[in-house]
User: Fold Ribulose-phosphate 3-epimerase from Carboxylicivirga linearis.
Amino acid sequence: MKHLIAPSLLAADFSNLSSEVDMINKSEADWFHLDIMDGVFVPNISFGIPVLESIKDKCKKPMDVHLMIVDPDRYIKAFKNAGADIYNVHYEACTHLHRTVQSIHKEGMKAGVTLNPHTPVAQLEEIITDLDLVLLMSVNPGFGGQKFIENTYPKIERLKELILKKNSSALIEVDGGVDNTNARKLLDCGADVLVAGSYVFKSKNPVQTISLLKEI
Assistant:
């Protein structure tokens, strides 16, 4: 499978959001990545359900929703109704993770689990076969534009080993500090999906930047 590119709208120009969405639609990007932050689980507040509802009919590609919030179980149905195709919760935020994953699948969405930089991939051993996606944070969650954490490379390799060992079909997604200097190595280690925010939206030609990431 050719790797996927998921531009993060957290870095988009929100005063011109409709045209930013159009740009992603016309590009070689595969998914829209949407970071939902509550100011509690992470020290920042981004956007929520009203923004998703306002763009869901404009988005021609799957909406990959990353919930950086406490108690994400409360909002599964609401985000489904707002257009989410992938519902990605943090391992650290879910007391009953298996139940959460079941609830996501029941609503017809793909289930993803995110690991913070300090959380070992071994924590997913008992649930990896139930997941469609694992997102590894390569920065500490909460803010865009942070420096990439180098330990992400061996962490991807350990996760890939676990996926193969358990015969899981879960994809590996990486988010944080992704650009043309590390994308090739991330893919070589086993990543399937690359999230890029600032690197795409702050570039002079975002469509070309996405194309370059896709061709790596």
In short: Strands lie at 4-7, 32-37, 63-68, 86-90, 110-115, 133-137, 171-175, 193-196. The chain has one domain: 4-215.
